[in-house]
Amino acid sequence: MNFDLHTHTTYSDGRVSIEDLIMHGEALELDAMAITDHLFPEKGAFLDEMVAKVQEGRKRVHYLLLAGVEGTILDVDGSISVDEASRAKIDICLVDVSDFTKGIYKNPPATPAKQVENFVTAMLNMCQNPVVDVVAHPFNMGRTKPPLMLESISLRDYRRVARAFADHKKYFEVMNNMWWWFPNVPPRHFKERYLDVIRIFRDEGVRFSIGSDSHSVGWTGNIAWSQRMLREAGVGEGQLIRPQEFLKVNAK
Hints:
Layout: E1 3-7, H1 18-27, E2 32-38, H2 47-57, E3 64-73, H3 84-87, E4 92-97, H4 112-126, E5 134-135, H5 155-168, E6 171-175, H6 187-203, E7 208-211, H7 224-232
Parallel strand pairs: 1-2, 2-3, 3-4, 4-5, 5-6, 6-7
Helix pairs in contact: 1-2, 5-6
């Protein structure tokens, strides 16, 4: 399936209007696309208008169009910026680790070892939140200060998180530009470790999503790298997300 479940518009930090992005999905002949603008703390005023425009857009396109958000993990306890009332308005909820995440990017601890521990703990705790569907670009820690590497997390801890994903039915997003999060690592070297991580989650029965994390029309639907990573990691179609499962029953 040719889908992109992670896109942004001018409702958050994207550079394209929602109307143009919806039409771009039609031009690309996507099977499905989700509009997932950032829902940062106290900045959700756009949500009702965005959902209304998605519902209107569905009348004009031939692909599955989903209304969503990308929330953020706020702290090591796994608290997130999306509440139940906001979740009830949308089809799909992504969350990530961001500049707002205390104890990782924001107000980091004194040692990298504690920072890694915080990252793992935040992921484990977040998994218990039923509001979350997809974890956007998980383990995006290469731009912390100091930067952490994928190798900073032990294989044992990756497996612990993978089991939590599987137990709580959280989807692992393979973001098309995941290498961007690790500016100090050559992409070919990054790929080797990243494939190991994907295989751990594959073996634990985790299902996967795909997203471009686009912030402009040109990046939307650009998922070739994601598809290649999943193929090389041996992830079959049966372990991919099915976007149609997220469309609200009462959606028009």
